What does this fold into?
Amino acid sequence: MEQIRTLVCKLQPTEEQELELHATLVRFAEACTYVHATLPPNMRNKDRMQALIYRDVRDRFQLSAHLAIQAIRRVAMHRKAAHETQSGVGTFAPTSIQYDARIFSFRERGHTVSLTLLHRRERLCLALGHYQRGKLKGATPTAAQLCRHGDGTYALHIQLHTPLTPPPMPDKAIGVDLGRRDIAHTSTGQSWSGDDMRRVRDHYARVRRGVQQHVSKGTRSTRRRGRQLLARLSGREKRFQRHTNHRISKTLVAEATAAQAMLVLEDLQGIRQRTNTQRRTKTERRRSNSWAFFQLRQFVAYKAAVASVLVVWHPPAYTSQMCHACLHLGHRQAKRFACTNAVCGWCGDADGHAAKNLAILGLNVAQARGPWVHSRWSGKSTGLLKAAGL
Ligand SMILES: [Zn+2]
It folds into this structure.
């Protein structure tokens, strides 16, 4: 098993190289457009397509052998994707080219790459930060994507293959409850309050609203500037969210590694329906619909895979209503949970409580019904039985 990670590295081309990069991307896109227009539209097999049109593409567009092949592959890929989603193949923009080991190489000394371009092979400098240097140390990447970003700069998205070792089966589990009040809350008591995030995001929403009024009413130039500002703001908010998700997932995986435990997270399909059952104001709707939980899950998954930490996804049914101490159903009200079982009577923080339930359930699932949870099962504990789908 291995994992592919993409490292975005800025290129520092000379003026001459920049022209050459641009020319290559344009010619590549032209070749794609030609291939798509020439071959029968229902043909999707890249080898068949290559056999038919390779020679023609090379003569017509003067692309190197592998660039021509990549162009044909791109068309095949677009056609397959369009076929699957039942949509049309869009236009081919001069924004990216896939490079493999035959037309791309990386040299760690000096941090340069060599790329086959339209007229010649070029050696280009990379502008790397500390993070990228660390990731590229000792690496021999064999694939990359040359990209032209929206701001007109060029970047190389280098694909790094990391071998993975299958995670061992731990006998401990850390449950993580995801929600709106606390973005994440672990069974060990760590939590990330949603309040700070909400303040930042409310601020962005306010600013956006103000700008939107200008965009819809003002003069032509005001409208244009307003649109640009909106685009910039959305980028900022996205980066903020991304950064927060990286921080949370990194801490979760580090904690699991240190404790030699597995991570148990809610299987969040349908979180929006679940949290959106009650009538709410417009502001509340925006708040609850907008945290990137899917991204957070992805970050946890890939960070855990690299660190050999086992992650179990568990359906969230009953995890907040069932008492983790006696497995009876209890009452949850806002941030408090109270067990209705007279013998038990546990009450406390609802999020931490749900996380503890997840830890118990996750261990049970991962260890194929370990004996210790079985011993706590009773006929009355309908919550757990339903949650486990029995
Ligand atoms: Zn209880």
Q: What stands out?
A: The longest strand covers residues 2-12. The first helix runs from residue 15 to 38.
